[in-house]
Write a structure and sequence with these properties.
four-stranded mixed sheet; Butyryl-CoA Dehydrogenase, subunit A, domain 2; 10 helices; four-stranded antiparallel sheet; flat; Butyryl-CoA Dehydrogenase, subunit A, domain 3
Length: 353
C-alpha cells in the first residue's frame, strides 16, 4: 500500500513488464540455453536484491517514471530466482531500454498519419544489468506461489483485463465507423453483400459492448471495491481476440485499392498541377476529393500502416495466445449451472418398469 500511495500521490506514470523473452518457446523459463536471458535475482544483500536479465513488453517505457517488474506466467519449483515482483525508477542505474522503431518519428504529418503521429505508445525490451533494488521496493521474493497468486487470487488480473476490454470495445467501434464511412464513400453501402458485412461487424461490436455491460451488471463487491463478473470477462477475451482481426480484414476488404492509391503527401495539395490530378482521380459520390483522401489515409493508418499492424498484433495477443484465453474461460465458467440442468433432466426418468 505504501508504494501505491507513493505512485498515486506523486502522479507517477508506472509501466510494467511481465512477459519473458525466450530463445526457445518450446522450453520453460529455466530451460533456456542462456540462464541470464530472463530477468532473475542474481544476488541479494542486506540492502536489497540485484537483478540481471531481460523482460518485455514495456509499453511507453521511454516516457514512464517508474517500472513494475514481475511475472505473469506460472512458474514451477526450481524457478524461484525468477519469482519476484519489484518496482524501481526508470532512471535506476543499470536499467536499459531497447525500444522498437518509433512510428511517430517516421510519421510525415497529421494529415498523412493521423493516428501514428499522435498515438504511438511504443514498446520496449527492458534489460537489467546488475540493477539493485532496495528491499522496500521488493513485493514478492523468490516465491513461485505468491507470484502466481498476486494475479490469480486477487482482482489484479480482473482489473487489468477489464480496462483492456473497454479499450477493445472503443477500438472496435472506431473500426466499425471506418467500415461504414468507407462503404458510403465508395458508394457501395446499398449493395446487399456489403450491408450484410456491415451488419455482421455491427453485431460483433454490439456483442462486446453487451458483454462489458453484463460483466458490470453481474459484478461483486470485494471489500470496498467492485469487481466485474469474472466469467463474462474471460469469455469476452476469447471473442474480442477473434473479432478485432476480422474487423481489420473487412475494413481492408471494403477499402480495396482505394486504401493504397492515395497521394503520397499532404504537400501534393499545395502544388496546383498535382492538386488538379488529385481532384480528378480521387472522386466519390458523397465526398469531396480532399475528404476522401483524408478518410482513406486515416483508414490506412488504422489497419495497414506499421502503426495499424502493431495494433492488430497487440490486440490478438494482449491477453495471451488463444489457448491461454480459452483456458481461462474454461477454468472460470460455472459448469455446475449447465451440467445440473442436464443431470436434472436425466434424473427425471429411467428405464420403464
Amino acid at each position: 500500500m505504501d508504494y501505491f500511495n507513493y505512485a498515486r500521490d506523486n502522479d507517477l506514470f508506472v509501466t510494467y513488464v511481465i512477459a519473458n523473452p525466450r530463445a526457445d518457446h518450446s522450453k520453460d523459463v529455466s530451460q533456456q540455453e542462456d540462464e541470464t536471458l530472463i530477468a532473475a535475482i542474481c544476488d541479494e544483500e542486506s540492502v536489497g536484491i540485484t537483478i540481471n536479465g531481460a523482460k518485455m513488453l514495456g509499453t511507453s517505457a521511454v516516457i514512464a517514471d517508474e517500472l513494475l517488474v514481475t511475472t505473469g506466467a506460472p512458474l514451477k519449483p526450481g524457478e524461484e530466482m525468477y519469482a519476484f515482483s519489484a518496482a524501481m525508477p526508470m532512471a535506476t542505474k543499470g536499467l536499459k531500454i531497447l525500444p522498437r522503431k518509433s512510428y511517430e518519428a517516421s510519421a510525415v504529418s497529421q494529415f498523412d498519419n493521423p493516428l501514428s503521429s499522435h498515438l504511438d505508445e511504443n514498446d520496449a525490451i527492458i534489460l537489467f544489468d546488475n540493477v539493485k533494488v532496495p528491499w522496500d521496493r521488493v513485493f514478492v521474493h523468490k516465491n513461485t506461489e505468491i507470484c502466481r497468486a498476486q494475479f490469480a487470487e486477487t482482482p489484479a488480473h480482473m482489473y487489468q483485463n477489464y480496462q483492456a476490454q473497454i479499450r477493445m470495445m472503443v477500438k472496435m467501434r472506431f473500426l466499425l465507423g471506418l467500415a461504414r464511412k468507407i462503404a458510403e464513400t465508395n458508394g457501395i453501402v446499398s449493395i446487399p453483400e456489403v450491408a450484410g458485412t456491415l451488419g455482421y461487424l455491427a453485431a460483433n461490436t454490439a456483442m462486446v459492448e453487451g458483454m462489458i455491460k453484463g460483466m458490470e451488471a453481474g459484478g461483486v463487491s470485494y471489500g470496498p471495491y467492485f469487481v466485474p463478473d469474472r466469467r463474462l470477462l474471460y469469455a469476452t477475451q476469447v471473442l474480442s481476440q477473434q473479432f478485432y482481426p476480422q474487423l481489420v480484414h473487412h475494413v481492408r476488404d471494403l477499402g480495396g485499392a482505394s486504401m493504397i492509391m492515395m497521394p503520397p503527401s499532404v504537400a501534393d495539395f499545395g502544388n496546383p498541377e498535382t492538386a488538379s490530378f488529385i481532384h480528378r482521380t480521387q472522386r466519390s459520390p458523397v465526398a469531396e476529393p480532399k475528404d476522401k483522401v483524408k478518410l482513406f489515409k486515416l483508414a490506412w493508418d488504422a489497419v495497414g500502416s506499421e502503426f495499424g499492424s502493431r495494433q492488430a498484433q497487440y490486440e490478438m495477443f494482449y491477453s495471451g495466445g488463444p489457448f491461454v484465453t480459452r483456458g481461462r474461460s474454461f477454468q472460470n465458467y460455472d459448469w455446475s449451472t449447465v451440467t445440473d440442468m442436464v443431470d436434472g433432466l436425466l434424473e427425471s426418468y429411467d428405464l420403464p418398469d
